[in-house]
Amino acid sequence: MTRLFAGTQWDRPPTCEVCGELEEQCRCPPPPRQYADPATQTARIAVEKRKGGKRVTVVRGLAAAENNLPELLTQLKNHCGAGGTVKEDELEIQGDQAAAVRRILEQLGYKVKG
Ligand SMILES: [Zn+2]
Predict the structure, then answer these.
(1) Beta strand pairing call for 111-113 and 42-49
(2) DSSP 109
(3) What pTM did the predictor assign?
(4) Spatial CB neighbours of 21, under 8 Å, sequence gap ≥ 6
(5) How many whole angstroms from 33 Cα to the centroid of ligand 1?
(6) Which pLDDT score, from 0 to 100, does residue 72 have?
(7) pLDDT tens digit string along 45-62?
(8) What is the DSSP letter of 15?
């Protein structure tokens, strides 16, 4: 009986394309992450109230897998002079910062709604 995958790439354990080691043994650094073009993405900005009546500016629509959200948050915090957090695919900046956040995102090339 012949093996189903004999002679194909599936017949061998996977190896690293860079060093040629088996993937289990490969110590190459991971490839740099590829982020999506800001111009293809639309950010949605909302100002919401949290407990105690505090306002936060929430940015949605930018996927964590396609954007460097921690870096983006740092830029927004610096420009707004406010604290903030990343929550999965959302950015949250303290206070009503909608106008500033919109300006910054647009400068970075994002489309912005809201
Ligand atoms: Zn490698």
Answers:
(1) parallel
(2) T
(3) 0.72
(4) 15, 27
(5) 16
(6) 96
(7) 999 999 899 999 999 999
(8) B
DSSP state of 90: E
Q: Residue 66 C-alpha to ligand 1 middle, in angstroms?
A: 24
Sign of CA dihedral 75, 79, 81, 87: negative
Output the six-digit token pair for 8: 């194909």
Alpha carbon of 61 to ligand 1 centroid (Å): 34
Nearest-CA neighbor of 111 among 56, 61, 68?
A: 61
The 10 Å Cβ neighbour count of residue 6 is 8
Distance in Å, CA 7 to ligand 1 centroid: 23
**How many angstroms separate the alpha carbon of residue 22 from the centre of ligand 1?**
8
Q: Please tell me the distance between residue 11's alpha carbon and the centre of ligand 1 in angstroms.
A: 19
Q: Per the CATH hierarchy, to which homologous superfamily does domain 34-113 belong?
A: SUI1-like domain (3.30.780.10)
Q: Ligand 1 centre and the CA of 3: distance in Å?
A: 28
Domain range annotation of the chain: 1-31, 34-113
